[in-house]
Amino acid sequence: MPPLYVPASSIATDLNISGQSENDLLYFNGASWARVPISPADPTQGGLVLRSGYPGLTAPHWIDNRAYLDFSTVDTSTTSTSYVTMNSMTRTVEGNGAIYLVMFSASGACSSATSNAVYGIHVDGGLYTDTERTLNDTGGAATASMFTAICTMGIVSVSTPTGTIDVRYKTEAGTFTVRERSLITIRQA
């Protein structure tokens, strides 16, 4: 692409924006120029990313989209028939409409070959749509206590000011045991 030519008559000079500070960015909000302050992030911890153009956003804003990894190599088990939080699989996040990519993986086994073991991603205590998965579907020929790879993922939204994303699990009968596991959480917007 050839260099862009901007006539001297189109170059802005001596702009003054209310509240301006060194290293601010400017954007046009449809009516006038507005400022985006410099990133508030601690530079020793990695910077924030400037996002714009997402549905519902009225102005560009800074977000922390670093990946957070929670993991454990210690076995955890449940005999509960209601969802319980899996040990070491909880992340507290910023909310107010924030969107996250959440990925969970582990190895798991159910002690009953005729029972389902179920797990899923929960946001603020509620199961997030389409992240629920089943191990040992009773329609198949399952082998009791044989560990297999399990995983689920989803794009989730957190509406509360501070939210909790976690993985919960339950079993219809027997014991559902989960071994090495990881929860990766990455803010998208």
Throw out a few tags for this protein.
Jelly Rolls, five-stranded antiparallel β-sheet, mainly beta, 49% strand, 189 residues, 2 domains
SSE blueprint:
Layout: E1 25-28, E2 33-36, E3 49-51, E4 61-63, E5 67-72, E6 76-78, E7 84-94, E8 98-110, E9 117-123, E10 126-127, E11 133-135, E12 148-158, E13 162-171, E14 176-187
Antiparallel strand pairs: 1-2, 3-4, 5-14, 6-14, 7-13, 8-12, 8-14, 9-10, 9-11, 9-13
Offer a concise description of the structure:
The protein is mainly beta.
Protein described:
The chain is mostly beta strands and 189 residues long. It folds into two domains: 19-63, no CATH class; 67-187, Sandwich (Jelly Rolls). Helix content is 0%, strand content 49%. It has no helices and 14 strands. The protein has strands spanning 25-28, 33-36, 49-51, 61-63, 67-72, 76-78, 84-94, 98-110, 117-123, 126-127, 133-135, 148-158, 162-171, 176-187. Strands 5, 6, 8, 12 and 14 form a five-stranded antiparallel beta sheet that branches. A hairpin with a 2-residue loop joins strand 9 and strand 10. It is elongated, with a radius of gyration of 24 Å. The model has no long low-confidence stretch (mean pLDDT 84).
